[in-house]
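Hey, quick one: can you model this chain's 3D structure?
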Amino acid sequence: MKATATTIPEELQRVNKALKKKFLDKKLIFGSGSVPAKVVLVTEIPGPDEARESRPLVGQSEKVFHQVLKTAGVDKKKIYITNVVKYSPAPGKTLSPKEIKSHVPFLKEEIKSINPQVVVTLGTSALNGIGLRQPLDNVHGRTFNFGSFDLVPTFHPSHAASNPAIRAQMEADLAKLKELLKKPTAQ
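Sure thing. Here's the predicted structure for all 187 residues.
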C-alpha cells in the first residue's frame, strides 16, 4: 500500500522533497504503507528488485516478512516500511559507510514525521543507520528506548527465507511487538 500525496503528512513530504534535491541523479525508493503508523520497519539498502518495483521490500523477502508479521499478530496494513538508503546502487557497487551516512538524517526525519511507537530494523545496515552500532547477533530481539520510540532490531527476511533458525529467531524477536504496542504512548 503506497501512501498518496493527500495522506502523506506535510513533514514527510518535506523529507521526500529534500531527498529528491540531494540525490537528483538517483531513482529514489520512498517509504510506503500506513501513515500514521504505530510500527515503522527500516530495511537495508534496496536491491535491483526493489528498484524495479519502487518499493522498499519485495519478492521472497516481502513474502517471508508478511508471514512472520502474521505469526506475530501484526497487521501488515498498519505498518510503514522504508529503507535506510533510498536508492539501489549500481550492480556490483557496494556503498561506502560515508554514502550510507548521507541518508541517515533523512531517515531520522522520516521516522520523526511518522511518529511511530516502535521501529523495527531489518538487518545490520538498517540497525547502523538508525544509530545503534552493535553487532546484530548481540542485540536482535532486545528492546531499546530511543526517546519517542522503542527500537527492536532483527534479521533481514532474506536471511530468514533460507535459514529456518534465523526465521525462528526473527519470529521470536517480532513477537514482542504486540506487547510493545499495548504500552501507553507518551504524547
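One thing worth noting: The CA atoms of residues 138 and 153 lie 10 Å apart.
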